UniProtKB/TrEMBL annotation:
Membrane-spanning ranges: none
Record protein name field: ABC transporter ATP-binding protein
InterPro entries in UniProt: AAA+_ATPase (IPR003593), ABC_transporter-like_ATP-bd (IPR003439), ABC_transporter-like_CS (IPR017871), ABC_transpr_LolD-like (IPR015854), MacB-like_ATP-bd (IPR017911), P-loop_NTPase (IPR027417)
Keywords, in A-Z order: ATP-binding, Nucleotide-binding, Transport
Limits of the ABC transporter domain: 3-231
Top-level taxon: Bacteria
GO molecular function terms listed in the Swiss-Prot or TrEMBL record: ATP binding
Alphabetical list of CDD domains matching this protein: ABC_MJ0796_LolCDE_FtsE
Length: 231
């Protein structure tokens, strides 16, 4: 399913004034493809991702998944939480794993919270851990994994609910260049396999050689879209 942002604006209160963090952003991420969102610090990338995730209500504009308008300025918190649980997977800058759970249990808990039936969840979790290259560590807790392995578990966890949209914030910031490139390539491959429309915020353009498209933000506005597939 495609992810589409139409004329999304996000305005924060700023003392007596306001601050426009996202200004009239229009963007489509086709199903199964990965778009990288680049731009300097403060450009509005995380704010745009927060709107797409239903974590922050847009001040204007809409977010659609597969042609359904799912988030608007009038969307309730209960509704945006439901959209996030049912249709969106997220990977944060730090993996945010639960210290007491093993890798496979992190995925099982997530599937449970997303209302998946228990039958088949363990098999699906193992399949995803295998796809991200950490199946051998399924029984380990986060403290027994490297930073890159933890990030891979977080990616597998984001996909266990079979989300239509995958939103990824700076997945490589804690990794060296080689591992960062591996993680980005992994996300791109999984997006293709699962059909998830994937939007990935990154500071590091050097890890993004294989993304399908790149969007740059500057001063709250989307500056340009470069379609690397046809460039
Ligand atoms: N909760 C908030 N309340 C008020 N202003 C905010 C809030 N969150 C972000 N901002 C402001 O909105 C603007 C965009 O911030 P945002 O975090 O989206 O940028 P970014 O491009 O993700 O930056 P970075 O790369 O440093 O994470 C900045 O001027 C920031 O100070």
């Amino acid at each position: 399913m495609d992810l589409r942002l139409d004329h999304v604006t996000l305005v924060y209160p700023d003392g007596d004034a306001t601050l426009t963090a996202v200004d009239d952003a229009c963007l489509t991420v086709p199903a199964g493809t990965t778009t990288a969102l680049l731009g300097p610090s403060g450009a509005g990338k995380s704010s745009l991702l927060a709107v797409a995730a239903g974590l922050t209500r847009p001040s204007r504009g809409t977010v659609s998944i597969g042609g359904d308008v799912v988030l608007t300025p009038a969307t309730t918190v209960a509704r945006s939480t439901r959209v996030r649980l049912e249709r969106i997977g997220m990977v944060f800058q730090s993996p945010q794993l639960l210290g007491s759970l093993t890798a496979v249990e992190q995925l099982e808990l997530h599937a449970h919270l997303r209302g998946r039936r228990p039958a088949g969840v363990r098999a699906r979790a193992m399949e995803l851990l295998d796809a991200v290259g950490v199946a051998d560590h399924a029984g380990r807790r986060p403290a027994q994994l490297s930073g890159g392995q933890r990030q891979r578990v977080a990616i597998a966890r984001a996909l266990v609910g079979r989300p239509e949209v995958l939103l990824v914030d700076e997945p490589t910031s804690a990794l060296d260049h080689e591992r960062g490139t591996q993680v980005v390539d992994l996300i791109i491959g999984l997006a293709r396999e699962t059909g998830a429309a994937t939007l990935l915020v990154s500071h590091d353009a050097s890890t993004l050689a294989t993304v399908d498209a790149t969007v740059r933000m500057l001063d709250a506005r989307i500056e340009e879209t470069v379609d690397l597939a046809t460039a």
